[in-house]
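Hi all, long-time lurker, first post. I run a small reading group and we've been trying to get comfortable going from sequence to structure in the token notation. Rather than ask abstract questions, I figured I'd post a concrete chain and ask someone more experienced to write out its structure so we can walk through it together at our next meeting. Sequence below, copied exactly:
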Amino acid sequence: MYKQYELPFASNALEPTIDALTVETHHGKHHAAYTKAFNELAEKAGMADMPVEELLANLDKAPEELRTGLRNQGGGYYNHNLYFSTLSPNGGGVPKGELAKKIDETFGSFDSFKEQISKLAIGQFGSGWAWLSVAKDGSLVLSASANQDNPISLKTGNKPIFTIDVWEHAYYLKYKNLRASYVSELFDIVDWDAVEKLYISAK
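-- Answer (accepted) --
Happy to help. Here is the structure in token form:
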């Protein structure tokens, strides 16, 4: 059974960046619904014993009539697990250690990285995500995807370690149509220690 990431903080802990009602709605309703639907579809497809990354990378092996559902619901489950697991009321600041060195090496500076991934997030038409991933050769890669797609379901071979959710339910209750403000302020609560652990594991 695929388990929804449990928040290790109260729903109001991310304020003022993300308000309690958004966390309760986003995590407690949207993410919970994706998790429930994904479990049901994976069970029906006979793939519920596969790690979610493996399932998303092998959607072509699922029954054809279930593929779209698995892609959407499985993506929603996986994407939100990553998103929420890299946020913290004690977040913000800048990465340290190996991740910091790799970001500087790849993008020139942390500020340049922030600018580039923010541009992808803000510029994503409609609902979607911006991603920081690790490629098979250990390099860092930025990308964006629509709906609940991600670098795994898109078969890029890249392993996501950080994402920015730009579906309207992630920010609209507080920021309304000001997506750029949400993206900018999100960096105040990013848990870079968690992202670095994912980087080290992925590389």
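A couple of things your group might point at:
The helical segments are 20-45, 52-57, 64-85, 97-107, 110-123, 172-175, 179-186, 192-202.
The domain at 97-202 is CATH 3.55.40.20 (minor pseudopilin epsh fold).
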